[in-house]
């Protein structure tokens, strides 16, 4: 399986055979699980059982081939993070794998990137892996409908529900902590709110953003979209082409660039960045106070880092769009090497590993532009 195109042409048995020979499968075979919840044994055994249950879903034949492959890949990778996170709970003596879905999501992104999977499909699969454990615990949520509605902006609730069925059926458990009735409740809640097969129909982009930020308490309230300006936030690795994209797609737009601020202050990227950040924030405020649209150009590779800047922009009632660029890694490395202030390749790889691709939960608009 050398490419995403080959994956799309492969049958179910071929995909499973390919997965069984991948380097990430061996640690799963060696990783045992808590016998009370997974009496079937190791993670790979459970993975294969879930894979088979995906193909047995009554809805499986009605899915498009791409949707089938997405579910098959979620089955193969949903617990791929367990070998790195499995531990014995010192209080109970039980085996636990805290945050394995986060680790698995990062692994999934790298595996699919290497296959050349297109960016939107890749990130959809990554988010299904990241949130695969949500449906069984819907009743434990303080606001069940909020969980279902928020996730509809990130993934298909239908695919998430179907995978949850397969995940529940693909195990032997002494105690059934995942009754299918709860999974049906996830489906029914999504259907009730019109977001089983599509994103929840928010009144507008601002309503969606406020809802994801837990700042909108009623779905019946329609916030005004009276923006003072638009901030275009760039998000990409060094050398990905942020400057070129802005020069082409946002010609004439004012730009606040962290690289430019460093040059202005004669501060290296390896020096303390406190003064750089403070100066850049003041440059942003100057535009915001003047109600002048501008671009904020920095790597902005994690949601936490982006949130700090977006909080500033929203406090001035700006509309925020995020542009995420991801050309092939070879292109990034080549372009980075040609830059005057190039970054060591080791840093590029480190940043790539920690990258969190932006989602619609973060801004009024998000564009993912792949190579």
CATH class of the largest domain: Mainly Alpha
**Average pLDDT taken over every residue:** 95
Query: What order do the helices and strands follow?
Result: HHHHHHEEHHHHHHEHEHHEHEHHE
Q: How many strands?
A: 7
CATH architecture of the largest domain: Orthogonal Bundle
Structural classification? alpha/beta
Uncertain spans, ≥5 residues at pLDDT below 50? none
What fold name goes in the CATH topology slot of the largest domain? Hypothetical protein af1432
Euclidean distance between termini CA atoms: 20 Å
Number of domains: 2
Helix content: 40-55%
Largest β sheet strand count, sense and barrel closure: 5 strands, parallel
Radius of gyration (Å)? 22 Å
The neighbouring-strand order within the major sheet is 4-5-3-6-7
Number of helices: 18
Please indicate the percent range of residues in DSSP E strands (runs of 2 or more).
5-15%
- Assign an overall shape: globular
